[in-house]
Specification:
The complex is a heterodimer of chains A (564) and B (187). Chain A has 3 domains: 284 residues, no CATH class; 93 residues, Translation factors (Elongation Factor Tu (Ef-tu), domain 3); 149 residues, Rossmann fold. In chain A, α3 runs antiparallel to α6 and α20 packs across α21. In chain A, α18 links the parallel β10 and β11. With 564 residues, chain A is of the alpha/beta class. Chain B has 187 residues and is an all-alpha fold. Chain B has a domain of 100 residues. In chain B, α1 packs antiparallel against α2, α2 runs antiparallel to α5 and α5 packs antiparallel against α6. The interface between A and B is medium-sized, with 30 and 30 residues. Chain A: GO terms for molecular function: metal ion binding; small GTPase binding; superoxide-generating NAD(P)H oxidase activity. Chain A: It catalyses: NADPH + 2 O2 = 2 superoxide + NADP(+) + H(+). Chain A: Its main location: membrane. Chain A: Keywords: Cell membrane, Glycoprotein, Heme, Iron, Membrane, Metal-binding, Oxidoreductase, Transmembrane, Transmembrane helix.
Chain lengths: 564, 187
């Protein structure tokens, strides 16, 4: 717990401040509408539901302002860059931008529900008071709309006893934009459920563009001004504290109290969302400008199992390890941008991505490049984005674990470490690397295999055999594979991968691995980096705690779950 | 968007609609709104939709994550056979269920959401999708039973041949109890 707090205190503080601001805005708005005198008569009809609806509306404005900010990736990169002198912990929350985006989205859903329920009660009460014929205060207030003199200073938006709430909802701007905006929100949320997002990403991405509808509906939602309070002039003339009880005498010539005049509140949502919308539009403009820049594709390599490697250069492009780019191929789709982790090292003079076929767009991309006789398709690139995994270079001993597709960022990291090592870069503190590659079968990652083989060879040439130690674990083995491996036990290279290290079958026994490393490096600080599933992260974190020595001078394991 | 299984999204949308119908129905009934009996209907209809939609169907490509505890409901849904398997039936059912809730403001949001879900199910049905139950995976790897039984004799053990047939060699003397009669075949 203490360890977690030390690493995440800034994120926890950020969340705490956000919740506190929500609570503050809710409470302050609630009290305003519950206590202030200009809403005295409104409260007579509506009760506390008025204050609840307005308070939740204020929080909705606040969260709608916040929701666009975590996805302004260029803004985040800018903040990250300009705060590079800050402690790493302060910049860590920037890596969890999508988590914050989701939290704000959940908050918007909660406040939308509260807002709608409160307004349902409000409409029902307005309807009842419009239909009441008992001459009570509420019915007098509601009848203002039918007086010739007071037609514009009405209080009850349900203008006559025959009007139904359904009619008012669908003929008023507030009602219509409310329904449409909420629908857009619901569609966005259902298509953003993790199951849909992970398996049908295109559907999620297209539906999520409905946020434009949501923002527009939010901006014009309050234009009708149907939340009404007493005007200042009317309050000066006939203050509710003096006149509320004498409502039967309003309008009489001998009474001091006149009919109260009401006015609507000006819409304020647009003020909250204007700045983020402009920032986001700026991001989109930047993406468009970048897409117009020319990308030179230096090399196209088709790897086994239909993995496409694209090596490209772009003027002014600078990357760091662990970053990703968005790629668009206009000949396939003019609108879709897909994210890919960069697999080249910053020291190389090109940048590369490896694209595996995993859906419509990737299928079309690979097929487009497979045609050798037609023109090479044009590519547009936006980025690089994402956190820089520079921490890897700070540890004397690095333990890198990549599972399945999670091995991709390690291509960049391993290559970069190797370049730094060759050039004796002083920023590189790493002396030994233990790399664990866990996958079902190597098919789609044969290219990574080749990378390891070439690294192995280069290290042998330099005589630095102990620098990179890697183990490959195949979890998708069967009897045949194991039998074959057993027969070829004494060959120098592994029959499956061609590497000097033999392939292991099954999952690694982390206790053994950690204790081996702990005994081999009794006085070092070991950084453990994972790109893989949460269950494995939990496992590794526990092992880090268990095998870190109590003595701070002896071996210490630090777990870093990087967001690749 | 060719590889999208629309039924999966329709399922999420319908589940959300069911919950919204229930919520709207509770508000209308608890607040005794005008025509609140539509609200009571909405609670029941919403619950029915939720029960029908909670078990997630199997994806045609790839593995499917079950929802927590959906096994029992999935068994019930499977019982109805073609009524629940066919998405045309579901599309029509959701459309019909949503209509009465459309008369009340509190539940009209649920109605619209359910109509949208019905539309997506129609699209799924047109593309030939079907609800299939998620099969529980059989155990893949042979467990320890395949490992041959360890030897039951303590060492020193007579060589393999002696265990199969009477030994030709002299049995090792000493306090060992020979489980197999060791005879000297030397004549």
């Amino acid at each position: 717990m203490r360890n977690w707090l030390a690493n995440h205190w800034f994120s926890a503080l950020w969340l705490l401040v956000w919740m506190a601001l929500n609570a503050f805005l809710f409470a302050q708005t609630f009290l305003t509408y519950e206590k202030s005198d200009n809403y005295y008569y409104t409260r007579e009809i509506l009760g506390t539901a008025l204050a609840v609806a307005r308070a939740s509306a204020k929080c909705l404005n606040f969260n709608s302002m916040l929701i666009l900010l975590p996805v302004c990736r260029n803004l985040l990169s800018f903040i990250r860059g300009s705060c590079s002198f800050c402690n790493r912990t302060l910049r860590k929350p920037l890596d969890h931008n999508l988590t914050f985006h989701k939290l704000v989205a959940y908050m918007i859903c909660i406040f939308t529900a509260i807002h709608i329920i409160a307004h349902l009660f409000n409409f029902e009460r307005y309807s009842r008071s419009q239909q009441a014929t008992d001459g009570s205060l509420t019915s007098v207030l509601s009848s203002l709309s039918r007086h010739e003199k007071h037609k514009d200073s009405w209080l009850n938006p349900i203008l006559s006893p025959n009007t139904t709430v359904l009619y008012v909802t669908f003929t008023s701007i507030a009602g219509l934009t409310g329904v449409i905006g909420t629908l857009a929100l619901i569609l966005m949320v259902t298509s953003a459920m993790e199951f849909i997002r992970r398996n049908y990403f295109e559907l999620f991405w297209v539906t999520h563009q409905l946020f434009v509808v949501y923002m527009v509906c939010l901006a014009i939602h309050g234009i009708g001004g149907i939340v009404r309070g007493q005007t200042k002039d009317s309050m000066d003339e006939s203050h509710p504290h003096n006149c509320a009880q004498y409502y039967e005498k309003w309008g009489d010539d001998d009474s001091d109290c006149k009919y109260p005049q009401f006015e609507g509140k000006a819409p304020e949502s647009w003020k909250w969302i204007l700045a983020p919308v402009i920032l986001y539009a700026f991001e989109k403009a930047l993406r468009f400008l970048r897409s117009q820049q020319s990308i030179v594709i230096n090399k196209v390599i088709m790897h086994p199992s239909r993995v496409l490697e694209l090596q490209m250069t772009k003027p002014g492009f600078r990357m760091e390890v662990g970053q990703y780019i968005f790629v668009k191929c206009p000949s396939i789709s003019h609108l879709e941008w897909h994210p890919f982790t960069l697999t080249s090292a910053p020291e190389e003079d090109f940048f590369s991505i490896h694209v595996r076929v995993a859906g419509d767009w990737t299928e079309n991309l690979v097929r487009a490049f497979e045609q050798q006789h037609s023109l090479v398709p044009r590519i547009a690139v936006d980025g690089p984005f994402g956190t820089v995994s520079e921490d890897v270079f700070q540890y004397e001993v690095a333990m890198l674990v990549g599972t399945g597709i999670g091995v991709t960022p390690f291509a960049s990291i391993l290559k970069s470490i190797w370049y730094k090592f060759q050039h004796e870069d002083h920023n590189l503190k790493t002396q030994t690397i233990y790399f664990y590659w866990i996958c079902r079968e190597t098919g789609a990652f044969a290219w990574f295999n080749d990378l390891l083989i070439s690294l192995e060879r280069e290290m042998e040439e330099l005589g630095k055999v102990g620098f990179l130690n890697y183990r490959l674990f195949l979890t998708g083995w069967d009897g045949n594979v194991a039998g074959h491996a057993a027969l070829n036990f004494d060959k120098a290279t592994d029959i499956l991968t061609g590497l000097k290290e033999k392939t292991y079958f099954g999952r690694p026994k982390w206790e053994n691995e950690f204790s081996t490393i702990a005994t081999a490096h009794p006085k070092s600080v070991v950084g453990v980096f994972l790109c893989g599933p949460r269950t494995l992260a939990k496992n590794l974190r526990e092992c880090c705690h268990r095998y870190s020595s109590l003595d701070p001078r002896k071996v210490q394991f630090y777990f870093n779950q990087e967001n690749f | 968007m060719g590889q999208i299984e629309w039924a999966m999204w329709a399922n999420e949308q319908a589940l959300a609609s069911g919950l919204i119908l229930i919520a709207g129905g509770i508000v209308a009934t608890a607040g005794r709104f005008a025509q609140w009996y539509f609200g009571a209907y909405s609670i029941v209809a919403g619950a029915l939709v939720c029960l029908l939609e909670y078990p997630r169907g199997r994806r045609s490509k790839g593995s499917t994550m079950e929802r927590c505890g959906q096994k029992y409901l999935a068994a019930v849904v499977k019982l109805f056979g073609p009524l629940t398997r066919n998405y045309y039936v579901r599309a029509v059912l959701h459309l019909l269920l949503s209509v009465p809730a459309g008369f009340l403001l509190a539940t009209i949001l649920g109605t619209v959401c359910l109509v949208i879900a019905s539309g997506i199910y129609l699209l799924a049905a047109v593309r030939g999708e079907q609800w299939m139950a998620i099969e529980s995976k059989p155990k893949e790897r042979p467990q320890a039973e395949d490992i041959k039984q360890p030897p039951s004799n303590p060492p020193p053990r007579p060589p393999v041949e002696a265990r199969k047939k009477p030994s030709e060699d002299e049995a090792a003397g000493g306090p060992q109890v020979n489980p197999i009669p060791v005879t000297d075949e030397v004549v």
